[in-house]
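Thread: Newbie trying to understand structure tokens

Hi all, I'm a second-year student working on a class project, and my supervisor (Dr. K.) asked me to get a predicted structure for one chain before our next meeting. I've only ever worked with sequences, so writing a 3D structure as a token string is new to me. If someone could post the tokens and maybe explain what I'm looking at, I'd be very grateful. Here's the chain:
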Amino acid sequence: MRGLVIAAHCKRIADSGLFQGFILLVIVLNAIALGVQTYDISPGLNSALTTIDDVFLAIFTVEIAIRVVAFGRAPWDFFRDGWNLFDFVVVGVAYVPFLRENITMLRVVRLLRVVRVLTVLPDLRILVRAMVRSIPPIVSLLVLTILIMYLYGMLGWILFGEEDPENWGNIGDALISTFTMLTLENWPALLEAGMEIHPWSWVFFVSYVLIASFLVINILIAIIINSMEEVHEAERAAERAKQREEAEAGGREGATLAERLAHIRASIDALEADLARDGVPIRQPERSARRTAKGGRARG
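---
Reply by user tm_fold:
Sure, no problem. This is what the structure looks like when written as tokens:
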């Protein structure tokens, strides 16, 4: 029973906005401390920052412990969430002996703790999940973009390869030129050079910019927005499912409690009947109090 009370307290702490804001502040301070150590600082300040980093690690360790204890009798449920597992690994790996002896690996581990800001801010988690969900359509879009670059690169080599070998001399140079135009960097210079070769070459450059830059970028934005909508809907569905599970669990607990009370009352009635058969007198106040507790009218 005491363990359940402790778990309930830990859950309230872990879910509180003040606690999450404090952890976010510690993550930001940890990032600042790491940035300061990149400068040429005095040994005393460097030692102080190392001590502060140990304090940060202790705070993160206590945080993970609170979140694990909050799951009560099922602490393993903490690891069913990928973000929780990420937090546990990032904090726990700092205690691995050989990593603490390797300065480079230790700095990488400290840097990963800054990435934990993703687990603290829900909006960032949604954004990351949307990016992961959008990977398959983005791969298809990437293939389409490469195909467009290749087709226009070959066409550019055919049209401008002899007169402008620096930009269109072979397929490699042509792909670099088409990629440069895809980013909208320096494409006016390529357009000007092409116009000197063929007066109608503006059709080639303008059509490529419209198709490869504007159209592809807009499709990319649409993919990400659609993925974010799907993630939002999945989050809402998961929240509704969690609320239903909690409601069903509460109903089952209430039903169990009612059944236990009914069993106790039936046992009391059976005991009174046995005592009455044996001729054992039952004091009237006690019997009346029990009948009243059953919800019936006390007999005089």
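A couple of things are worth pointing out once you decode it. Residues 202-277 form the longest helix (76 residues). The chain has 14 helices and no strands. Feel free to ask follow-ups in this thread.
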